[in-house]
From TrEMBL:
Domain UspA, chain residue ranges per copy: 9-155
Xref: Pfam families: Usp
Protein name (record): Universal stress protein
Cited SUPFAM superfamilies: Adenine nucleotide alpha hydrolases-like
CDD domains with a match to the protein in the record: USP_At3g01520-like
Family per record: Belongs to the universal stress protein A family.
Organism: Lolliginicoccus lacisalsi
Annotated InterPro entries: Rossmann-like_a/b/a_fold, Universal_stress_UspA, UspA
Length: 159
């Protein structure tokens, strides 16, 4: 990787096998001074509101316990810590960050790339094709379309 302003790699990590593969490839092919492992999460109250809106049925209001940590954030932290560990094993000096998704996962990742002023963004992809790809847009595809930085997309393993 050419020496840039920051030589910082952002790796989107969700705990999937494809995300693990992306970390291994980043460690193998990129030589950067640092990496940030980013895990996007959505608060449970927002997930509940989104899902109830999709059902078309009015749901009773839910007020989350503000004294307790959001379970979605707790899960994201566990996933992110795994990503940091895997990145370290892949030879990357890194730190982890959990970022709250306000609109979409891809937008949170692109915003984080801008906030941290990264040199390149790395993500895995499911590699969906055909009807499945038409019905459910890939986060990696949206990152590629909307990020104004170099993006490395690691496809899933064949098989």
């Amino acid at each position: 990787m050419a020496s840039g302003a920051s030589d910082l790699v952002l790796i989107a990590y969700d705990g999937s096998d494809n995300a693990k593969r992306a970390i291994r490839h980043a460690g193998h092919f990129l030589s950067a001074s640092r990496a940030i492992i980013v895990t996007a999460w959505e608060p449970l109250s927002r997930q509940a509101a989104r899902i109830s809106g999709l059902s078309g049925v009015m749901q009773p209001g839910w007020v989350p316990d503000t004294a307790a940590e959001d379970a979605a954030l707790a899960d994201a932290r566990v996933v992110n810590e795994e990503g940091v560990r895997l990145a370290g094993e892949a030879g990357l000096r890194c730190e982890g960050h959990c970022i709250e998704t306000v609109t979409t996962v891809w937008a949170a990742i692109v915003d984080a790339a801008d906030e941290y002023d990264v040199s390149i963004l790395v993500t895995g992809t499911r590699g969906a094709t055909g009807i499945k790809a038409l019905l459910h847009s890939s986060v990696a595809d949206q990152v590629l379309k909307h990020c104004h930085r170099p993006v490395m997309i690691v496809p899933p393993c064949e098989g």
